[in-house]
Amino acid sequence: MPRTLVESPVTTPSARSRLTPGMHWRAVDPDVHVGYRKGVRGGRWVARWRTRSGGYQQEVLGTADDAMPADGEGVLTYAQAVIRVREVVARHRADEAAAAAGPPLTVAAAIEEYLDERERRTADKKRDARSRLTRHVVAKPLGDITLHTLTERDLTLWRNTAPSDLAHGTIRRTVNDLKAALNRAARVHRDRLPPHIAVVIKNGLAVTEAVATVAREAQVLSDEEVRAIIRAAEEVDREQGWEGDLHRLVLILAATGARMSQVIRCTVGDVVENRILVPTSHKGRGAKARSRVAVRVGRDVLDALAPVTTGRPSSAPLLERWRSKQVGITWVRDRRGPWSVAAELTRPWVTIREKAELAEGTVPYALRHSSIVRGLRAGLPVRLVAALHDTSSAMIERHYSAFIVDALDDLASAAVVPLVAAPADVVPLRPRRRKK
């Protein structure tokens, strides 16, 4: 190849018709060229670029629009061929950079790194996130895609192919976990990933708000329904031999409105006077792992907790349950330990819900929704309700806006005054005469 590229007129079908059969090149930049290989019945576009080793690599792009009109896919104009050349070269150079940095970083590998770090941080080896991500992401074609080639279309396609019978809550949690895993990989491996990867993740996993809002409105319970759940939990606890462990867990979930992942980390020392100090969630990257939210509870709740707070060390887990082991063909109780994951409540919750005569779709998280709405209806400021439930005011306003309006309706009605005429029982005051 000569040192100086001799460019050919390949920009229009008319110009290309006067060329001799063979290869003709035109520069896109000093190391990237678009080629036109003319044959007997038309020609094809070819991309050529210099590799890291100093040689050149080529790839066929498509057919030139000599005899057929361009469609932007298989038949390309010169301008479309130039765009395709840039895309092909960018992809191959990204592949080279990724290969030079080590083994290819796939979506599945990014998820595994995220789960390992998350489980080390929370000291919990049985996280629900692992089973969700393994089943719904790693086992799908998305898991094999390398991060440097990931596109918004890949993420959108994955979301659109989710099973129709998958619960909205499961979809939302899986999307949030996947987003956290990919964002962590984009931050940790930014030297081997394209700069636009953060935008791809954000746009490809954008969550629609309609699903979350409907789910929350359907799960708000009345105070009497919450009491029915607590009574049912006490009955199931007694019938199945939980020794109070199940009843106390459900009671604290209802009294605090906290997530199960928070209350299971409470210690005996977190029960202070008429409050329970609830650990903040592990959500986000902020340094708040040791923080506590002081939630006021009633004397009835404190009395129910007395058997597990009296005479125990302040560092001991507040909520525990029996762990069993298999001996032969039977299971026997082995030791007591803290609750570990929300899934442990799934089986007894079915019986609790049936005894409380609630709708089939009612989930334990309904206790949190109901607690938030209870605070709003009591007239508490949105910011205080958000702080007590370890969330943001924006999230409260986004998902519970209808209840905020209802709660403030009485205040708004007090500001309404007659504007057309004064009420009959109102006597207008005579104007004071000014002294001369």
Automatic annotation (TrEMBL):
> Where do the Core-binding (CB) domain residues begin and end?
105-186
Keyword DNA-binding present in the record's keywords: the answer is: yes
What UniProt keywords are attached to this protein's entry?
Answer: DNA integration, DNA recombination, DNA-binding
The family database entries (InterPro entries) matched by this protein are listed as: CB (IPR044068), DNA_brk_join_enz (IPR011010), Integrase-like_cat_sf (IPR013762), Integrase_catalytic (IPR002104), Integrase_recombinase_N (IPR010998)
Keyword DNA-binding (UniProt):
yes
The protein's matches in Gene3D superfamilies, at most eight in alphabetical order, are given as: 1.10.150.130, Intergrase catalytic core
Domain Tyr recombinase: residue ranges: 216-413
Which protein is depicted?
Tyrosine-type recombinase/integrase
Q: What organism, scientifically named, is this protein from?
A: Rhodoplanes azumiensis
